[in-house]
Amino acid sequence: MRAFLILAPAALLAACNGGGSADDGTEISIKGGTGSEFSAGMGKDGRVSIDAPGFKAAINLPKVKLDAGDFDINGVGLPAGSTIESMNIDGNEKGNGAAGESVNVRFTSPTGTAGVREWFQGKLAAEGFKLTAEGDNLSGTTDEGKPFRLTTRSVGNGRSESTLAIGG
């Protein structure tokens, strides 16, 4: 957990090399510790907030827009042309000491819902994920036995918005 607390701000700040664009940036939030010991976040406008024991800060940075090339899970990235709208990483331990780590990524894709599902189904099954298709959505477990869920919805013009949730 200590490594998580040290690496989380570095991950947030490392994202800053993506630069800004005329579009909204990607919203990123990171939490860690037991309960709410640590939190950091970057808004779509580039404003970063850090709240840790003994340290609080608000920093203005250029907004960041993450895309398909900035994310992968077990070597599997997002469909080409996808952009990440938000990423939430939670490393909090549950009250009973059990780990409650989770990652949620919301992204838009120039691919329709069926195309997104097929992309992940093929790639993740090859990585050892156990998956079940439910319409254009997927659920199952990772190669480490953590819960996995992909939900998709059409946003028109052959595009889709999806949420990838791992752990919990």
Q: What can you tell me about this protein's structure?
A:
The protein has 168 residues and is α+β, with helices and mostly antiparallel strands. It has two domains: 1-16 and 35-64, no CATH class; 66-168, TATA-Binding Protein, CATH 3.30.310. The protein has two helices and twelve strands, in the order H-E-E-E-E-E-E-E-E-H-E-E-E-E. The chain has helices spanning 2-14, 113-126; strands spanning 27-34, 38-42, 47-52, 55-60, 72-73, 76-77, 83-93, 102-109, 130-134, 137-141, 147-156, 159-167. The strands form two sheets. Strands 4-3-2-1-7-8-12-11-10-9 form a ten-stranded mixed sheet, covered by helices on one side. Strands 5-6 form a two-stranded antiparallel ribbon. Strand 10 and strand 11 (147-156) form a beta hairpin. The longest helix has 14 residues, at 113-126. The model is unreliable at 1-22 (pLDDT under 50).
Key phrases:
168 residues; alpha+beta; TATA-Binding Protein; 2 domains; 10-stranded mixed beta sheet; two-stranded antiparallel sheet; 2 helices; globular; Lipoprotein; signal
